[in-house]
Amino acid sequence: MTIRPVRPGMVEEAERREAPTAELALGWQRRVFDGVPLPVDYYAGEVRDKGPRYPELIGYEVRVGPFRGLPSSEVPAALERFESQVQRAVRLLDREVPVGGVPEDPGVLGSVVTLCTMTHGEWVRIHPFANGNGRTARLWANWSALRYGLPPFVRLRPRPAGDRYARAAADSMQGDHGATVTLFANWLHSQISN
Fold first, then answer.
1. Which of 113, 100, 119, 115 is nearest to 21 (CA)?
2. Are 124 and 133 in contact (CB under 8 A)?
3. Domains plus CATH for the chain?
4. Taking the model in full, what pTM does it have?
5. DSSP state of 69
6. How far is residue 133's CA from residue 120's CA, in Å, rounded to a whole number?
7. How far apart are CA 19 and CA 5, in angstroms?
8. Among residues 60, 33, 51, which one has the least CA distance to residue 128?
9. Which strand (E) or helix (H) includes residue 86?
């Protein structure tokens, strides 16, 4: 499994400023898992408890260490809220950062980092897929950065090393994205300082 098939399309989607939708991320996941044998083909690109067309995902619960993902019955509604929140955030940021531009104002830059954190953290919290949620969350963070002319700064695969990312992601599973904001701000600063 590789993320190479996703990157070109993701860059184009961000640069075109396509509307952020859950379907966008489902497409990323389908491309990541293309050609990978799966227990059920629709494990790639479909979400837990989406409906009767995907019976193996109904009641499919996930756990990462001691932390449970959102109960499967809550996933579809949570994805609708996620999509609405991200669309509201990008409408505001799109007014601040012109297409092809970068955030000039430190406050706007901070808002972009917050968007990267929120898309990543909420995807981790919801955990909509049977597998590949962390990868998709990191794609969301990088898509958010690319949308506003910033470099992708979150390593996709393997997941970022070290305890800081693991602790931040564990906090996000519980709805607390504060540690991720700090971590992402530091990673972005390191990326653009070099």
1. 119
2. yes
3. 7-193 (1.10.3290.10)
4. 0.93
5. P
6. 9
7. 20
8. 60
9. helix 75-96
